[in-house]
Design a protein that fits this description.
Layout (H helix, E strand, L loop, with lengths): L4 E8 L10 H16 L8 E5 L3 H5 L4 H9 L5 E4 L5 H15 L4 E8 L6 H9 L14 H16 L3 H15 L13 H6 L2 E3 L2 E2 L9 E9 H6 L6 E10 L14 H14 L8 E3 L5 H10 L30 H5 L3 H17 L13 E8 L4 E9 L2
Parallel strand pairs: 2-3, 2-4, 9-10
Antiparallel strand pairs: 1-7, 1-8, 4-7, 5-6, 8-11, 10-11
The chain binds coenzyme A.
């Protein structure tokens, strides 16, 4: 029988501007917290999977597997995974597969990104490498630009407007107010969003996730290991899925659907043996406000064209039927790209365990979902987490 994969412990640095901290320092801090939380010794780790996207560009640093093993104090095979902004979840998924295969009982997974030690222009250039070099980067596409094309097309096909998007930003900033790890712990209102400087129409400043430094880590263990060592590990990763799509927007049938997310979601739901109606709480990849709506539609929570008004209608707010991004999401918590996927896992674990600042809002929740996208959702990874004891 395939073993279950328990989340024994999680750790995360604050996200934000901390350019003086190298990514190895950031990851060491997150891993340290994860080991303490797990009550698992570093010596027990049999593999490390680590996500990072732009280390060569920001820190002139490749070969990060062994570097991060050294930083975390583990002596085990160590591999870096890269899937643009989904790199952290790629590391988590690799860890899940390693334990399920029977190869390992204990893995350290996580990711880090240092982004603010270089200029915004340089970071924008580095991030653009997640788009198609031949057809998009060469034409000057940046990520705010690419997602604004998707937003404008969404308005054209389904309706909706900037104010709908503003409600998503307001919701996620509100959720982050009490989250000490978040980059922006301040509430904003609709006028703030609508009157902010334009970044790429229709997006203003508050439609965009920020540029951030940070790291996250988790210790994953098999059922047997958790039992033998008497670990308090009540959260299991019961579903894992990954999807792919055409790399460039211009190669897609639709610019307002994200089939990579649909495929990842379907795979994760099937793996967990449940569906969208069973999910109590979700952390989705809101790198830009429109991305949250696209995610909720791809994951089957809403029909195409309907999710843009979900925040405005109070359906995805903290007291809504499906609270989304209770951490503050990428929008307000921050988005150090290689760390984000594992940070979603960290926040969801705490939400379900009951030790997150927003746990009280979801005290009955037993099933959570994380959705982490790469590029303009050319890649996507979804995990389902359940409380099992
Ligand atoms: N949301 C809210 N406030 C933000 C912000 C954001 N996304 N980005 C910056 N700020 C705030 C800063 O805190 C700062 O406030 P202060 O003056 O009170 O200290 C102010 O805006 C200026 O910050 P600065 O860092 O100079 O902004 P910038 O103009 O260099 O960068 C963006 C702003 C939107 C261009 C940048 O955050 C960006 O490129 N975001 C998208 C990142 C991205 O593409 N990620 C990958 C997604 S796929």
């Amino acid at each position: 029988m395939v073993t279950g994969v328990r989340i024994a412990g999680v750790g995360m640095t604050p996200f934000g501007k901390q350019s003086e901290r190298t990514s190895r320092e950031l990851f060491a801090a997150a891993a340290d917290e994860a080991f303490t939380d797990a009550s698992v010794s570093r010596d027990a780790v049999e593999e490390l999977f680590y996500g990072n996207f732009m280390g060569e560009f920001a820190e002139t640093q490749g070969h990060q597997g062994p570097l991060m093993a050294n930083a975390a104090g583990v002596v085990a095979p160590a591999t870096r995974l890269e899937s643009a902004c989904a790199s952290g979840s790629a590391a988590v998924r690799q860890g899940v597969q390693s334990i399920r295969s029977g190869d390992t009982d204990v893995v350290l997974v996580g990711g880090a990104e240092r982004m603010t030690n270089i200029s915004t222009a340089e970071t924008t250039e580095a991030l653009s490498a997640a788009a198609d070099g031949l057809w998009e980067i060469s034409a000057g596409v940046t990520f705010p630009g690419a997602y604004s094309l998707m937003a404008n097309r969404y308005f054209h096909e389904f309706g909706g407007d900037r104010e709908d998007l503003a409600h998503i930003a307001v919701k996620n900033h509100e959720n982050a107010v009490e989250n000490d790890l978040a980059q922006f712990q301040r509430a904003i209102d609709i006028e703030d969003v609508l009157e902010a400087p334009t970044v790429s129409s229709p997006f203003g400043l508050y439609d965009c996730s920020p540029i951030s430094d940070g790291a996250a880590a988790a210790v994953l263990v098999s059922d047997d290991f958790a039992e033998e060592h008497g670990l308090d590990a009540p959260i299991e990763i019961t579903g894992s899925g990954q999807g792919v799509d055409n790399m460039s927007l211009q190669g897609r049938k639709s610019m307002v659907k994200t089939p990579a997310a649909r495929r990842a979601g379907e795979m994760a739901y099937e793996d967990a043996g449940l569906g969208p109606a069973d999910i109590d709480v979700a952390e989705v990849h809101d790198c830009f406000t429109i991305a949250e709506a696209l995610a909720l539609e791809a994951l089957g929570f809403y029909e195409p064209g309907e999710a843009i008004s979900a925040a405005r209608n109070g359906e995805t707010t903290i007291d809504g039927d499906l609270p989304v991004n209770l951490s503050g999401g990428l929008k307000a918590k921050g988005h150090p790209v290689g760390a984000t996927g594992c940070a979603q896992l960290t926040e969801m674990t705490k939400l379900l365990r009951g030790d997150h600042v927003n746990s009280d809002a979801v005290s009955d929740a037993s099933v959570g979902l994380t959705h982490n996208a790469g590029g303009t959702v050319a890649s996507c990874i979804v995990h389902v987490l359940e409380v099992v004891e």
